[in-house]
Please model this.
Amino acid sequence: MLVDAFPHSDGGAFMNIEFDSFVDRLSAAAFLDETSRNAIRGSFSDVLTVGSNAEILSQDSGQASLHVLLEGWAYRYDLLPDGKRHISALYLPGDLCDVDGLHARPIDRGIAALTVCRVARLSRAAVLAAMDEFPQVTKAFLHLAINETLVLARWNRLLGFQTAHERMAHLFCELFCRLKVTAETVREGDIELPLSQSELADVLGLSAVHVNRVLQDLRHDKMVRVAKGRLHVLDWERLAALARFEPDYIPR
Amino acid sequence: MLVDAFPHSDGGAFMNIEFDSFVDRLSAAAFLDETSRNAIRGSFSDVLTVGSNAEILSQDSGQASLHVLLEGWAYRYDLLPDGKRHISALYLPGDLCDVDGLHARPIDRGIAALTVCRVARLSRAAVLAAMDEFPQVTKAFLHLAINETLVLARWNRLLGFQTAHERMAHLFCELFCRLKVTAETVREGDIELPLSQSELADVLGLSAVHVNRVLQDLRHDKMVRVAKGRLHVLDWERLAALARFEPDYIPR
DNA sequence: CGTCCACTTGAAACCTATCAACTATGGTGG
DNA sequence: CCACCATAGTTGATAGGTTTCAAGTGGACG
Model:
């Protein structure tokens, strides 16, 4: 795990552009003028670079920082008493991984990288200070949190009430939509999908074996092709219909 | 559905005490001084009284108001395309039913009463104004929203990864803990539970028939007794162990 | 070339849903 | 007061989706 020291007074332009994609997202949630944007930028402390499968935030660590994913894919998980792992969220570039880090109580959760990741750390104290000084900043984080409730509510429905095929299809639709707004390389229904079948299983609440079979069904029905870390959507219409996908719960 | 006109300038003390239980909860999330507490109180518009099974907020209605449950039980639901109903949250007295009402986008959901309910309506515009004037108010709502993400994340785990018995036991533990902080009449493990077996099914992602059988198992194992709208917890230890219940995700 | 890991396949067991009765309960009207 | 009805809860039999176990394939990489 590498930490690039990165004095925010004169950070390189490259880094700032990436970080600004998060600032933009905040501003989309609740409009931020240039001063409050700068307050957010001021909370930036450094960039973490972690290899794939490395921990970004371990379950018991404190919460002096918030984490914004700049590059790569990551996930939040919790470990069940029987040793299983539940992946409770997937994070894409531009996502804030831990809104709940703003909360006083420490939460039992871990965040880990799926691919090589670059993660911006924000000082929790600085963010709280920015929130005190600029009410709009608080509002923006509030909207981020509300968005998260909407996504989680949707997943409740999926995990509790819909079939394995619907869940899988829905996940693909959701990832596709979320990537559209952040990634540049969404060409012709073909996106990166750096999840193994057993990781998919831990997202969808299925066994790895069953994930394999569902994937085969979807492929056989010519809706998607999944291989080598890529997802190719062959028939968006039917995939979305199967998933009963309504993208309205996704921000933006 | 009755609406008690209730001019907030001189509202009766009875009402204010009930509404203050919500203000207290907000303040617990982020401390509010007396001026900001008054700003919240000022957003209060009126009290709705609805009979059991009545709609409090229909799926397509606008969102000029936020709803705080003063008395009774309510639930949020969404209807699945195949006609099934998913109960995505249960609300107890003191709960804010729709944080996401603060959000700009209209959300597809309904809120309905399980019992006779008294619901305070807050003017969305007034709340937003209070948030602009008093940053602490925004922070309080932010923490409420974060709490909601924690609860929803827990239910994701339950619905996706745990068995029917564990879900049921967990629901009971959660309700018990949540009631402890709001209701007065929690005597000896015996609480109100105004949910039919088929409503339980819609909460837990099970069929009504299976709810019945799980309930029998729990009763047979002498952990709980459920009848006539009441839940009696006979053996908290074993129930919590079965549920793998860790109350840390519940506010307060 | 061997090893490891992800993926694949088959068979059996398990959990939960569905369907179809049937019972218990409470309320209503005659 | 009783007959009737609607609703909630109960039970049994069967079917289906998903898990588990066990074994085997395949490619990637030292």
